[in-house]
Design goal:
The chain is α/β, with parallel strands linked by helices. It has an eight-stranded mixed β-sheet with strand order 3-5-4-12-13-14-11-15.
Length: 304
């Protein structure tokens, strides 16, 4: 195998591209936005930066938080001190750093939208807004809103959480997590450099209702909506049957990160799984002993 196209340049795609290009494959990374402030808390847990120390050992602006306050609507609050901090980034910064690492490893980065894929006998034609790229293999990393019908996971509405919130120009030194009785989800307040990410994610309620819950929480805590910027996005949150049938790999392709549904269905943590799956996918692709069917099977095995 000589040439790989990585479709999407979020954390999952950037890490896959970095690893593939470092190993000498001609690697194209195609993303319609490149580094952007994706709606996200931006929180990286200890398991992520323990496994990938470059996620903490760098000069990027970030917030290291060790104090968390968990609150239940009726049960009161409990404070928790984390022995290892939660590291909180702006996604613009984090994505920018991961894309730069991919570029410095030799990946060719193009800002373009992928329109579709056509299977050829020995590979793929990847159709983009700016032309076609012929490639031997594809890594699908297009996130939760993957629009490529024939590749990536196939979840239903029941396998998705909606997440929405505000970037609020304010400061605090701890993380707040707030739970409600009978609601599968939670509110978070994550301090970032220069602002707070205040959001809600959950299942079984329309976005409008989630927004009302969040705004009433913010009003009660005097978190000002003035000058706050609204955001919303989908999050995979697969139910049990969807995990059993999850389509993460096929003939000549592997899916990574959100486009493979690889998000903790309870907490919504996805950054670690995006980065880890990008790394694992690249290891499988680089193994020259395996044919494409064996690669798909090996990748599924790695994810279990
Ligand atoms: C509100 C919210 C808060 C969150 N908070 C956290 C958190 O604090 N901690 C945590 O660990 N996880 C969090 N997550 C989850 C986390 O954001 C995702 O799991 C993570 O971004 C997945 O990375 P990815 O690379 O798979 O996808 P993405 O980061 O979504 O990247 C996909 C990329 O593909 C590109 N793309 C899509 N379609 C195309 C196309 N057709 N052509 C070209 N490019 C395309 C997009 O531009 C994008 O750059 C949160 C998610 C949400 C929605």
């Amino acid at each position: 195998m000589k040439r790989v196209a990585v479709l999407g340049g979020g954390p999952a795609g950037s890490v896959a591209a970095e690893r593939l290009a470092s190993a000498g494959l001609e690697t194209y990374l195609l993303d319609e936005k490149l580094a952007w402030e994706k709606p996200c808390g931006g929180g990286l847990t200890y398991k992520a930066y323990q496994k990938y120390p470059f996620l903490i050992d760098n000069n990027l602006p970030k917030k290291l938080v060790t104090r968390t306050v968990l609150t239940d609507e009726r049960g009161g609050s409990v404070g928790m001190r984390l022995s290892q901090p939660l590291v909180i980034y702006s996604r613009l910064e984090l994505n920018g750093m991961l894309l730069k690492r991919a570029e410095e490893s030799g990946a060719r980065i193009e800002k373009t939208r992928v329109l579709g894929l056509d299977r050829r006998s020995n590979g793929w034609s990847v159709r983009t807004k700016h032309g076609t790229i012929e490639t031997d293999y594809c890594v699908v990393a297009t996130g939760a809103r993957n629009g490529l019908r024939d590749v990536g996971t196939q979840w239903t509405g029941a396998d998705t959480m909606y997440a929405l919130g505000y970037w609020v120009p304010s400061n605090q030194e701890h993380v707040d997590i707030h739970f409600f009785r009978g609601f599968e989800g939670y509110i978070w307040v994550f301090p970032r450099c220069g602002h707070l990410s205040v959001g809600i994610c959950g299942k079984g309620e329309p976005a409008q209702q989630l927004r009302q819950r969040l705004e009433s929480y913010m009003r009660e805590r005097s978190i000002l909506l003035k000058d706050a910027v609204f955001y919303g996005h989908a999050l995979p949150s697969l139910e049990r049957p969807a995990w059993r049938n999850n389509r993460v790999a096929g003939d000549g392709w592997l899916a990574v990160g959100d486009s493979a549904g690889l998000v903790d269905p309870v907490t919504g943590e996805g950054l670690y799984y995006a980065i880890r799956s990008g790394d694992l996918a690249s290891q499988v692709i680089l193994d020259e002993q395996m044919n494409p069917a064996e690669k798909a099977a090996a990748y599924r095995q790695h994810l279990q």
